[in-house]
Amino acid sequence: MKPEIGFIGLLSTEDILEDLAFAAKNEFECFEIALDWKQNFHFSLKVIKKIRDISLKQGIKLIVHTPYYLPTSTMLPEIKKGVIENVRKAIILARGVKSDKLTIHPGFQEMPASAIRYCYDSLIDNLQKIVDIGQEHNVNICFENFDKPLLCSELKDYLYVLNSVKGLMATLDVGHVNTTNIEPSEYLKETRNFIMDIHIHDNNGKRDEHKCLGEGTIDFKEFFSECKKTNYYGPFILELFPYKNIIEGRRRFLDYWEDI
Q1: Contact status, residue 149 vs residue 112, Cβ threshold 8 Å
Q2: Taking Cα atoms as reference points, which of 180, 98, 87 lies closest to residue 142?
Q3: Which 3 state secondary structure label does DSSP give 200?
Q4: Rounded to the nearest 5°, which phi and psi values hold at 150?
Q5: Where does residue 86 rank: exposed (0-12), middle (13-18), buried (19+ CB within 10 A)?
Q6: pTM for the model
Q7: CATH H superfamily, domain 5-258
Q8: For 66-101, how does the pLDDT look when each residue is reduced to its tens digit (9 = 90+)?
Q9: Is-cis flag, bond preceding 235, omega within 30?
């Protein structure tokens, strides 16, 4: 079975239509829309229609990616309200472009380690509200694991949140996993029942570097072998920049995949 490979537009270009044209020209199966840039916060109805039309015509599956710096775990009531409304708009955008997946990050630690449970209580409460809104619009909320200083940098904490929020799914970021003390293939085994999206990039095991596959310490052959065992064939989203690295990343991805 052929894997579904795509890329995220976070740092490739600030023009989403240019990204989509690149995806279509190079026959990518999926594309993740990053809302991190200012101009991506609000799309006009005309642009939304163009995104939807291009993706449907070219058969490109879309995922929406909320800003990584969104303080999802915040305990401050006024900011909580803003976070929920921001994600609601992203969910409505997802439905507007015919996407059923939205990636969201855990947020930062606002309390000292001795009181960190309050951060997790707030994160779980906020995520449940977000998942409920997503279900109203038939959009799955996919919770991404992250590296420090964000929450859920450890597997036990990530699983705790996934199991505490009814209906919450997962975006597994292999590069982020590699900065922990757990092998990506083992991490996949533990989270496989939640995963709906996987982000692909490499690093040296110490920090998030977004290197091309094979330029860091991740054993992609072992990881993709485990993907096949668990019947996960995509989407796989390359978090590589710029365009030339995306093309090279897909080539290396397929080399690993087909060698299994």
Answers
A1: no
A2: 87
A3: strand
A4: -75, 165
A5: middle
A6: 0.96
A7: Divalent-metal-dependent TIM barrel enzymes (3.20.20.150)
A8: 998 999 999 999 999 999 999 999 999 999 999 999
A9: yes
Pair of tokens at residue 82 = 């803003």
**Helix 220-229 crosses helix 184-191 at what angle (to 10 degrees)?**
20
Q: How far is CA 160 from CA 132, 143, 152, 166, in A?
A: 19, 12, 9, 12
Tell me how far the alpha carbon of residue 85 is from its chain's centroid.
Answer: 20
pLDDT at 150: 81
**pLDDT tens across 232-251, in order?**
999 999 999 999 999 999 99
Provide the pLDDT for residue 135. 98
E-strand ranges in the chain read 5-8, 30-34, 61-65, 101-104, 140-144, 169-173, 195-200, 236-238
SS3 of the chain: helix, strand, coil, percent, to 5: 45, 15, 40
Phi-psi region of 91 (alpha: psi -120 to 50; beta: other; left: phi over 0): alpha
What's the confidence (pLDDT) of residue 66? 95
The CA distance from 157 to 155, in Å, is: 5
DSSP assignment of 226-250: HHHHTT----EEE---SHHHHHHHH
b (16+ CB within 10 A) / e for 151-170? bbbebebbbebbeebeebbb
Q: What local confidence, expressed as pLDDT, does residue 178 receive?
A: 97
At 114, the pLDDT band (50, 70, 90 cuts) reads: confident
Q: Quick one: 11 exposed, middle or buried, by C-beta within 10 A (0-12, 13-18, 19+)?
A: middle
Domain locations in the chain? 5-258
